[in-house]
Sequence to fold (287 residues):
Amino acid sequence: MFGIPSNMPGSVFDELWRLQQEAGELFGSWSSPLGIRSLPRGSFPAVNVGQTPEKVEVYLFAPGIDPKSLDISIQQNLLTVSGRRDLGSEEEADYYRQERFSGEFRRVISLPEDADPEQVNARYVDGIVQIGVKRRESARPRQIEIH
Amino acid sequence: MATNTEVSRRGASAAADPASGSAAQRAQSAEAPIRPAVDIWENENGIVLCADMPGVSKDRLNLHIDGNNLIVEGQVAFDLPENAEALYADVRSSLYRRSFSLSGELETGKIEASLKDGVLTVRIPKRAELRPRKIEVQAS
Fold:
């Protein structure tokens, strides 16, 4: 009924990504916000982390959840986001594919030392949870003027 | 809030037209697209397809029919500060793309789609005359 086009096997590329990622973790300083707490590729929700001198921005790709059901906490520089997505199953329906994640999820992200747990904001737009954590003033690079 | 989206036939929209995106998006559109995870099921009325496309808004979604194929495309956009440096990325492409070949008993002209919180739902009805009919067995 629904012909699915054949696709390239992803395993070889996944392996390359993993090697690259591990190399980055070996050589970077705080280049590993997930580190030993990272989950295999393809885990729900996917996470991206970016930083600026002022902030750390964490993005969780979590479509179709109720943002009120999310539990976001920071303890000892570990940002933990947990929640659940219940998709259920349609009654009187025959399924061909069920690839989308359903159930409880939890992701842990380690924040840099200067992250300020008092200054966090979170929002949910188009299925992405964006969490911004400010960094403490003292840790930011300062321009030193010569008189 | 769900917003209805239009299904175009070979229609170009924001997602397919690189000129309408920002410079960064144009640069990223050459990357290998992400195949969104889907659920597909069938009931007596037709086929329903749900796809996870977080970061795609209605104006960056492009659904079109090319011949016998339903093509789902979307451009990811999120609020990234200008000077941000990526530290970790599970998501390394900003384009979703996946195609599905449709069969003749589906009414491609009457496809309905909606997008809510990054989840695309597409309903493809079966032609009315081809919906299953219960055949009564006459007792003699």
